[in-house]
Amino acid sequence: MILTVTLNTALDLTYDVPKLVPHTSHRVGDISERPGGKGLNVARVLSALGHETTVTGFAGGSTGAVLRELLAGTSPDGSAPTGAPAPGTAPAPITDALVTVAGNTRRTIAVVDRASGDTTQLNEPGPLVTADEWTAFLGRYEELLAGADAVALCGSLPPGIHVGAYAELVRPARAAGVPVLLDTSGEPLRRGIAARPDLIKPNAEELAQLTGSRDPLRATRDARRRGAHGVIASLGPDGVLAVTPDGIWQARPPAKVLGNPTGAGDSAVAGLLSGLVEGLGWPDRLRRAVALSTATVLAPTAGDFDRAAYEELLSRVVIEEHAPAA
Amino acid sequence: MILTVTLNTALDLTYDVPKLVPHTSHRVGDISERPGGKGLNVARVLSALGHETTVTGFAGGSTGAVLRELLAGTSPDGSAPTGAPAPGTAPAPITDALVTVAGNTRRTIAVVDRASGDTTQLNEPGPLVTADEWTAFLGRYEELLAGADAVALCGSLPPGIHVGAYAELVRPARAAGVPVLLDTSGEPLRRGIAARPDLIKPNAEELAQLTGSRDPLRATRDARRRGAHGVIASLGPDGVLAVTPDGIWQARPPAKVLGNPTGAGDSAVAGLLSGLVEGLGWPDRLRRAVALSTATVLAPTAGDFDRAAYEELLSRVVIEEHAPAA
């Protein structure tokens, strides 16, 4: 089982409008609602790849209830997992191990202009999480770690959670020998890295914010010195740069693609984790990460991936090994 | 008891943002949620004026559940009414007689720019109402009419409701001798008028759309010929023009005011109905309508009214009686 942690889950709404014009009134056409927050997006891709996944974090209020209902519908039969199918063959169950909080799970609204596809994003703040709710979560998390092959810690922190929270979650994973990937930004990333996660997956902006350098190789090495064992820097259309204890690789998509990059980073995380638990080497994990994130940009619905494109891209991702000079 | 009908209720969300910029991402600051749709707004003002009010229409899904919870919280003690206090003295109970539907009650989102107060509106479509749900509503409506002193039919029609629906609701009210006010627009207004409601309350735009004339007096008289016994045309900062079987009046606020006009029309409806059931004459009903709508423009929260301003304005509304030339 792969465990994903989303402390600040969201009910993601997408509104279709002809064109957003400030200070006017709009009739929304199509509405879509789905469970959101980075760890839930990662879980959806892992499920599609055939990996049994458990999601934890917080959900509460009426929006949290809708999120959990939709999450149950994402699972192939809506029931508890009874054993994963062979990876890659069929969607695997997603188990809901979210901790209930008193506050309302936040909504995010993506307002999409019909013709251009341009998106305006409105993100509610998360619910205030109390000290007791955090303690309840820590207990649940440690129980879940016992059955996890890998864990991903994903996204922003809701109000009430201390900025060093990710360090507090990296440590027990390391102690239990469960590989841990941290995908966040800003101060939570800076503090989390100090607890020495196995992997981080910053984008160029997050990496520059962390290290002060916009040179990907220099910034990536700096991030390793700060505590991350491996750094997978996502460079958008240029693919990923992986600086790991085993070597340095760059993996690129075969060609530039146009589309919506929303969720591409979460698909890359799913690619990395699935390759890790299947025992693949770095080049194959990176191939999977780049093919999945490229296939996500290509999919018509934000955050989904185009399976045919993914399978076709897998063999065409360009991998370059760099000399491991320090 | 005053009955208000809101076929297309809404969960009204207000988002506070620094400034809405299309195609960028926004962190929402304050969020407010409240029960919406014109008839619910009218009921809230009636309750504040001390009038026992019952709301009906449709509510469904998770958003409908939140709406009903918030509505229960609006009522002073959250319980069923046990007898209205003397009008004007204390808030009176609002009784929830909404009919449950399978679909989700729509959300509306008002995105308010913090500094300027400029508002961008996003309105979801309503739920599809089935023929069985409409039939259930008609039964409930006829029962409620039996105990009503007046009824207001308010707002747009959700998908699935036929465009002549308001005519179907005006007729039994007329037959039961319950004064009926229709506040809608477009084709539902045109069809509804033909069933001869006691009052309609169009704004200048709705009146022009109905009659083809932008001259308020001519358009108002035309609207009467189409079937409305009385027409109260709301003319924004110029107050209201009332063309009734008893005479013609113009009522104006004492001075122009700046503020948010959202909900001013609903407050005017509440003023008219409260004055009607209290047996006031037209000049006093119009005074109340204009003072309430002006006090609504002045209130910091959209749709609320400033009670001190309302009480102060009541004596200062300027009433002019016109010669009843046809």
What does this structure look like?
- 2 copies of one chain form a homodimer.
- By secondary structure, chain A is an alpha/beta fold.
- The first copy, chain A, has a domain at 1-125: UDP-N-acetylmuramoyl-L-alanine:D-glutamate ligase, CATH 3.40.1190.20.
- In chain A, 36% of the residues lie in helices and 25% in strands.
- In chain A, strands 1, 5, 6, 7, 10, 11, 12, 13, 14, 15 and 16 form an 11-stranded mixed sheet that branches. A 4-stranded mixed sheet of chain A has the order 4-2-8-9.
- Mean pLDDT of chain A is 92; it is low at 76-87.
- Chains A and B meet through strand 3, helix 2, strand 8 and strand 9 of A and strand 3, helix 2, strand 8 and strand 9 of B.
What's a concise summary of this model?
The structure is a homodimer of 326-residue chains. Chain A is α/β, with parallel strands linked by helices and 326 residues long.
CATH structural fold name of the domain at 1-125 in chain A:
UDP-N-acetylmuramoyl-L-alanine:D-glutamate ligase
CATH superfamily of the domain at 1-125 in chain A: Ribokinase
Largest sheet of chain A: 11 strands, mixed
Rough outline of chain A: globular
Radius of gyration of chain A: 19 Å
User: Which pair of protein chains has the largest interface, and what are the residue counts?
Assistant: A-B, 28 and 28 residues
CATH architecture of the domain at 1-125 in chain A: 3-Layer(aba) Sandwich
The CATH class of the domain at 1-125 in chain A is identified as: Alpha Beta
Helix content of chain A: 25-40%
Class derived from helix and strand content of chain A: alpha/beta
**DSSP strand tally of chain A:** 16
- In terms of quaternary structure, what is this? homodimer
The count of helical stretches of chain A stands at 10
Strand content of chain A: 15-25%
Whole-number average pLDDT of chain A? 92
Distance between the termini of chain A: 35 Å
Poorly predicted runs of 5 or more residues of chain A: 76-87
Write down the secondary-structure element order of chain A.
Answer: EEEEHEHEEEEHEHEHEHHEEEHHHE
